[in-house]
Write a structure and sequence with these properties.
By secondary structure, chain A is mainly α. Chain A has helices at residues 4-19, 23-26, 29-54, 62-78, 83-106, 112-130, 160-178, 180-190, 192-197, 202-228, 239-249, 261-280, 285-311; strands at residues 136-137, 230-231. Chain B is elongated, with a radius of gyration of 22 Å. The chains are: A mainly alpha, B alpha/beta, C alpha/beta.
């Protein structure tokens, strides 16, 4: 496991602790809860995105899928569904969108970038259509408590959604590292032609990857809805870039074959801590944007440097 | 090739002529386009309802108004709003009623409209242009002052207060923010504004995140909060509730929502400054029609601000503001 | 064992195979011989299920055999070792070897068994660098090739197809591979073996089939067939003299002087000079630093020390600015044709003219017709077989691609040609044409440096020769003072 992302995270936290006029406040459990709850949405997306990026693909439709699945869960809840089926509906819709992405990529031979760019528009449009161009308010159910900062019961320490994300991250890391499916995801990202020649059904595998990732994006959408207590078809615009940035900061390579779930999680945390820190320092938004941009470039450059040194 | 060109040219020319004739207004039939900043929020639905009420009233007077309602889905997408305006220009409406997302970005399209003979009434938020017919809006500065006075009263003139701004470039909320800040510094010397330079951003999610981060930093010694529109009030309310600080901080919000009324009854929100969007929509359309009919209209029409608190929430006046008869007019 | 008959395959308008028959007998090694573009690789892809033939039948051990996919073929006991490396460089050696048939236990990958099975096969090659847990991306090319071979062996195939497996292997590994092939044969496994090296084929194969233009033109036993007969069958004409005869006029003035150039770790010390009208050969083993030396001279990599003079004027070697070097009249032909030598997606015309667009452009605006005219001129001169200058290079055969790469040097009208393995992996017909072009260039007074691993070619073409060994370049001597044995000695030399 490479240390880069960890060091980055530690550096960000240290940086703000030193700058802050109340370090105790910044390092408090409460602040950690806030940041972790804020990270859930990007983190869940990043788990799915890691699989896709490792396999040599990309999915630009995440933000739209988050909005769509949030709206789906909100509408079904409002229509009187009980919470669990409504939640499942959101997740499954996410999975279906992923499967469609996968089929377009494999059957219609459209590059993932283009296929999912199309889906970015389609899913957003469908979300607005379903929501009747308005936000969809939901009745009070336990779904609303999933991403709450201070959970009830208190022994959970952090939001249930954070635990769910953590659990899924562990499962995904095991799947990627220790199952035939996982290793084949790496194989097609590393050299698709070779994997095909070795009898890997690459097309079917890709549909699976996009589908599985879609389920995670769907869950991410449910969490977004839970945080806002409403389905908002205009939410999460541009969050696909946050998700991709998390994977890239965590060591993922856009040319495929590389990436790790743990790294991506750290990447997501780095960005959340940066936003949190600079807001508490009272810095304007543009400072955060510049800093996140610089960190993305530095992370990837440092990784490349490390690698070229390793091969010498 | 050549005959084809001639035919196409002739067709185009006749279509243009027909369009031009169609525009020749018969003084009691108008096509008015109304362009809000967004479409998702209840505020805009109220404006829409008010506009429709104006249309119906005018109809009884024998004036036929065809109202087009279209806006950007997100409240920070200036480009999309400009495109909507331009779309109406090429469609050839008789007048525009516009709530500009940005005081400057929308000047060019409005100017182009005027040159094409299409007048514009500005509602809700000011435009840095003299080419408009009228500005129909809340006195937003006064709204900020109202909020400052309410907080000043609740805190008995001393304590620490946080202002969460909305977004750079939005004239209406900036006026509220200015009204609030100036009133606090002038009239309440013992109230300290500990943070007034952070922005909530366009959506509820960005507002909630910003609120959480600010509350963690300043939450402990904080006495009062003011947020300047529906989204940021929502975000701040969610953050206060999640962090268990709701009720312990005196909180004044802006704009109406069912959730806010509930929060006031639970003592988590201590006042909301309300505009009258229904009136704004209504006056926007009537002003435009009056102008189109050749009447003289006032350059500035104030639609008023009201402070609603737990004490006066049940009065008919407050109820009319809180629950504008949207359903009666929409669908 | 495996019998193919009447196999036909078209790709759009191109006929790749036009009736091929091949009979692989049990426990025999069968050499498949032919120029590049003759259809060998297509045939192998059909045998392994990666392509479906348009016509023809295949049978395996008497039964009808029609694999739908590589996986299908593998299950039937037919495995292919690819010509192009087809490994996943981010995965480990073990994972690559067992790809497609990973052992599992309760749904999880069984790493222990994975490593053990990989180690079992790897043991047969005593390769120090090959441990099951190493990342393939960190291995040298030769070791990667071994991984590729192990992958085919591990599947317990009864038929192994090898498509130029030795093209990037050093001799020691070639010997190990041949030992493997013989051991497989003794276990009753049959192999099809594709290679350009006739000497190599004679070492390992018993039977042969020659393909030309998509047809099988000659087959039989190698022992009773001469090289001349094989070459005649491949080329379709008898090859009297592969290397061009040229007047070795007294070399002219010095064009390029290289003094003690070093670029550690690959190149430690290299000095030589090239004169007008001569071909200087550089021999050596793969990995001796020859390619790296050329790259430094062209400015693709930085030199740590040394001086380089072009027509007496010094060029900066520490700066790595290839555009400056190219402007001085140096032309470079890369050994990596597909990645560095050519831009495959672009047209023949673009590839030929790209180093000197100025010849057909005004104010940055390329005159397409002029460009096409100049490209066609070069294509004619080198006998490039293509539909026209607008055809993408990607769709040409290897030999024709290499001719396009050389045509670029001609078009550039560079004075000094640095050629890195100019005939690597191409068919004999193309080789002959490339030799002719090189000879012609030398006669015109250009100075040529030719790096090659194929000794007959060096002896056939060069005026003088130096040998590189572990980063050091030997003194340059006239070709008459060298023998193949002395070259080998110098290459291995302590």
């Amino acid at each position: 496991m490479r240390l880069g992302p960890f060091l980055g995270l530690a550096a960000v936290i240290l940086f703000f602790t030193l700058l802050s006029d109340s370090p105790a406040n910044y390092l408090s459990m409460r602040n950690f809860r806030i940041v972790s709850a804020q990270t859930v949405i990007v983190a869940l997306g990043a788990i799915g995105m890691t699989m896709i990026i490792v396999s040599g693909g990309i999915d630009l439709s995440v933000g739209s899928v988050i909005a769509l699945t949030g709206v789906v869960t909100a509408t079904t809840l409002r229509a009187g569904w009980s919470p669990l089926p409504a939640l499942v509906a959101g997740v499954v819709i996410g999975g279906l969108v992923g499967v469609v992405n996968g089929l377009v990529v494999t059957r219609l031979k459209v590059l993932p970038f283009i296929a999912t760019l199309g889906m970015l528009g389609i899913a957003r449009g469908v979300a607005k259509w379903l929501a009747d161009q308005q936000t969809v308010n939901v009745p009070d159910t336990w779904v609303n408590e999933l991403a709450v900062t201070f959970p009830d019961p208190a022994w959970l320490l952090v939001a249930p959604g954070v635990w769910v994300a953590l659990l899924l991250a562990v499962v995904a890391a095991l799947v990627l590292g220790n199952t035939v499916f996982g290793r084949r995801v790496f194989a097609i990202g590393s050299n698709e032609a070779a994997a095909r020649a070795c009898g890997v059904a690459t097309d079917r595998l890709k549909v699976w990857i996009y589908g599985l990732a879609g389920l995670l994006f769907g869950l991410s959408g449910v969490m977004q809805m839970s945080r806002l207590r409403q389905g908002d078809p205009t939410v999460a615009i541009g969050s696909e870039l946050d998700v991709i940035a998390a994977v890239v900061i965590g060591g993922g390579s856009l040319s495929g074959g590389e990436g790790s779930i743990l790294g991506s999680m750290i990447g997501a945390l780095i960005m959340a801590f940066l936003r949190n820190g600079s807001q508490q320092m009272g810095w304007p938004t543009f400072v955060q944007e510049i800093m996140i941009g610089v960190i993305i470039v530095l992370a990837v450059a440092a990784d490349g440097l490390r690698r070229s040194r390793a091969t010498q | 090739m050549r005959p084809l060109k001639v035919i196409v040219g002739a067709l185009l020319a006749s279509a243009l002529l027909a369009g031009a004739c169609g525009r020749g207004r018969s003084s009691n039939e108008f096509h008015v386009a109304m362009i809000p900043k967004g479409t998702t929020h209840e505020f805009w639905k109220s404006i829409h309802a008010g506009a429709i009420r104006a249309v119906r009233e005018l109809e009884t007077k024998g004036v036929n108004v065809r109202l087009a309602w279209k806006g950007p889905l997100r409240e920070d997408d200036r480009e999309q709003q400009i495109q909507v305006v331009e779309g109406f220009l090429s469609e050839g409406v008789d007048g525009l009623v516009l709530a500009p997302l940005d005081a400057r970005a929308l000047v060019r399209p409005v100017d182009e409209a005027r040159r094409a003979g299409i007048p514009t009434v500005i509602i809700d938020s000011d435009l840095a242009s003299d080419d408009t017919v009228s500005f129909v809006a809340t006195d937003n500065y006064e709204g900020g002052v109202l909020a400052a006075d309410r907080l000043g009263m609740l805190l008995e003139g001393k304590g620490t207060v946080l202002l969460l701004r909305y977004q750079e470039g939005s004239a209406s909320t900036e006026a509220r923010e200015r009204g609030f800040v100036e009133r606090v510094t002038q009239k309440y010397p013992d109230i300290e504004l500990i943070s007034s330079d952070q922005h909530a951003g366009p959506t509820r999610d960005t507002a909630k995140r910003a609120s959480e981060n600010l509350l963690n930093r300043f939450g402990q010694g904080l006495d009062g909060v003011f947020t300047v529109n529906e989204n940021s009030t929502h975000g701040m309310l969610l953050a206060l509730q999640d962090l268990g600080r709701a009720g312990r901080v005196k909180f004044i919000g802006f704009d109406a929502s069912e959730t806010f009324v509930q929060a006031m009854s639970r003592d988590q929100l201590h006042g909301i400054v309300l505009q009258d969007p229904f009136e704004m929509g209504y006056r926007g359309v009537t002003t435009m029609v009056a102008h189109l009919q050749g009447e003289e209209v006032s350059r500035r029409i104030d639609t008023g601000v009201t402070l609603v608190t737990a004490e006066n929430v049940e009065t008919p006046e407050s109820q009319a503001l809180l629950n504008p008869p949207i359903d009666e007019y929409l669908r | 064992m495996l019998t193919l008959s009447g196999i036909k395959k078209r790709f759009g308008p191109t006929v790749a195979l036009d009736g091929v028959a091949l009979e692989l007998r049990p426990g025999r090694v069968h050499a498949l011989i032919g120029e590049n573009g003759a259809g060998k690789t297509t045939l192998m892809n059909i045998a392994v299920g990666a392509l479906v033939p348009d016509a023809g039948t295949m049978s395996l051990q008497g039964d009808r055999y029609a694999p739908a996919s590589p996986l299908d073929a593998r299950r039937a006991g037919v495995a292919l070792i690819h010509q192009e490396l087809s490994l996943c460089s981010h995965l480990t050696v073990a994972e690559n070897i067992l790809m497609g048939q990973e052992p599992t236990r309760r749904g999880l990958l069984d790493w222990d068994q994975c490593r053990r099975r990989a180690a079992d096969v790897l043991e047969q090659f005593h390769h120090a660098e090959l441990r099951p847990d190493r990342r393939v991306g960190d291995l040298p090319i030769a070791a990667r090739q071994v991984v590729e071979i192990c992958r085919a062996i591990v599947s317990n195939a009864s038929v192994v197809l090898m498509d130029e497996p030795t093209s990037s292997l050093p001799r020691a590994d070639v010997d190990r591979l041949f030992a493997m092939v013989r051991r497989l044969r003794s276990h009753g496994v049959s192999s099809v073996y594709i290679s350009h090296f006739l000497e190599e084929l004679r070492e390992v194969a018993e039977d042969f089939t020659v393909l030309r233009d998509g047809r099988s033109v000659l087959s039989g036993e190698l022992a009773s067939t001469t090289d001349a007969e094989l070459i005649a069958a491949m080329v379709g004409r008898s090859v009297e003299d592969v290397f061009p005869r040229r007047d070795r006029a007294a070399p002219g003035d010095v064009l390029l002087e290289v003094e003690h150039v070093a670029a550690p770790p690959a190149v430690s010390d290299a000095s030589f000079a090239v004169r007008r009208g001569e071909v200087l050969g550089i021999a050596g083993l793969v990995g001796a630093g020859r390619t790296e030396m050329l790259r430094v001279l062209v400015g693709l990599d930085r030199a740590a020390a040394g001086r380089v003079r072009v027509r007496g004027a010094e060029i900066r070697t520490g700066a790595a600015r290839p555009w400056e070097v190219l402007a001085r009249g140096i032309g470079f032909l890369s050994e990596d044709r597909t990645h560095e030598g050519l831009t495959l997606r672009l047209s023949v015309a673009d590839n030929i003219t790209c180093t000197r667009y100025g010849s057909c452009a005004r104010y940055g605006w390329i005159a397409r017709s002029e460009q096409a005219r100049q490209a066609e001129q070069q294509m004619r001169a080198l006998g490039v077989r293509a539909r026209g200058p607008a055809q993408p290079v990607r769709t040409l055969s290897g030999g024709n691609q290499q001719k396009v790469a050389l045509a670029r040097l001609r078009h550039q009208s560079a004075d000094i040609w640095l050629l890195d393995e100019p005939t690597k992996g191409i068919d004999i017909g193309s080789k002959v044409q490339i030799y002719e072009a090189i000879g012609e260039a030398a006669s015109e007074g250009k100075g040529i440096v030719m790096v090659s691993s194929y000794l007959p070619e060096l002896f056939g073409m060069c005026d003088r020769l130096a040998v590189m060994s572990r980063g050091r370049l030997s003194p340059v001597r006239p070709i008459a003072e060298w023998t193949p044995e002395r070259v080998l000695e110098a290459a291995i030399g302590s």
